[in-house]
Predict the 3D structure of the following.
Amino acid sequence: MLEVKNLNVWHGTMQILWGVDLSVGDGELVTLIGPNGAGKTTVVETLIGLNRKSEGSITFRGEKILGWPPHRIYHAGLALVPERREIFPKMTVEENLQLGALGREDNGQTLAHVHALFPILAERKHQLAGTMSGGEQQMLAIGRALMSRPHLLILDEPSSGLSPALVTQVFTTLERLGREGMTILLLEQNVRHALELCNRGYVLENGRIVTSGSSRDLIKDEHIEKAYLGI
Amino acid sequence: MQVAKGSYPWYSCGIALGIAVLFPLLAGMSFHILNVAIIMLIFILFSSAWNFLAYSGQASLGHAAFFGIGGYVSTLIARSAGATSFATILAGGCVAAFIGFLLGLTCVRLKEWFLAMVTFGFAVILQVVVASSLAATTGGWDGIVSPRLIPVSLPNYLVIEYYVILAVTVVSIVAIYLILRSRAGLAFAAIRENETEAQAAGINPVRWKLLAFTVSSFLTGISGALMVHHIGFISPEIFSADNSFWPIIYSIFGGLGTISGPIIGTVILTVVWDSLKEMGLTYERFVIIGLLLIVVVIFLPKGLVSLPEKIRERYAQRKKG
């Protein structure tokens, strides 16, 4: 599905990512974990085409997408749920969802599916998105990304700023999407939750992938235990 | 934005249209009042076109450029053809749209101040070019006569002119309404709110911003052509800053980003402007309009259209407390 090879990215003259290799197979749930400032968000920005200064290769469903404009990558089937759930606060819930399906004729099926997944979005459809709670906005952000019927769903820190109960709710939703066959790349600081949900993981520190492997192995890894799980 | 959604009270649109249609009868065919009303209609179209561009998050400080291009192109063609027609006005709109498209190409990547400065500068450059380099065809600063929209020899020509311009304005505003209600409206709103985020949501901002620029300059060109054929004269003064600022003032006064805002803003300010003149306050009215604008921006940042909502809020608060 997604194959990143030897990716180097700069912000201005400062190099942020150094030779990142990463792959996500069809139907796989993969997590990219790492501390603040490791470069996780830079990885996402580069994947969806927002970073110009980059080198290496990104192959998505057999096509080299590095250098494509963001809208083209989006329509190729790579959708992002941005950090801090950046929905459009002054537009209604319904309009936010329709935006996700822009450029594609929707027969209402996808909307029905999203409404089934998040009933709250059907109840609140005429409400301004900015007036909803943080958890509801997160649902909306995921719903909007799903409206494009993506092949790969990338989530950038979906748990940040949410109460523990809501975090559990978000992860339950992701688990359900995974069971339905969605391919997911999850960037998280909440390492335990992320490793419990996903099959495989990569650890990003200071712009480099330092460890990778199955979640089962990573959870037992001494370095990860010390640095992230705090035991 | 809900403004572009079906929440419009249709009866108030009907009443407004009814008044507009009956107006020449009410005005008792007064020459002066009809003239004011016609210019008001033209500026309603002009302001709506400017506001349409603002809807996509692009603020132009030089829309007089397209107003003037429409006027000059239509005038020059009409002069060589001997008469004004819908074709010459349409040609004015099309050339304005084309130049708007080209200017848009340079502007779509610019934000806020930079976009404002480029458009402002463009109008200034155009004024100089038309007044000097092209003086042989445009008559320079002296200007040239522009054939009237409706020949003065016809009986009631001013009433006919009023209805023709009313029809063009109404059709244009309906077109704007339909565009903003379509997917384009959603894309514009998303780009205006957060362009990076819109890109991440799969929207190509360049394409939509160019569309907004082209449509806006087309309608502005049409309004400029109507203006000069109504006045019967055109000079490089048409590119002056007042013509760039009036549509902005009208739109902000009435309510940015709404369909009715520019209409209400233009109607009220035109009436105030002209009444002040009747009262002999020819120069004082600049100060008065300025103060009015400040008061509205402070107390009704969403413009006059938000007044009923504001009153309702106040009333509800008073009931509670």
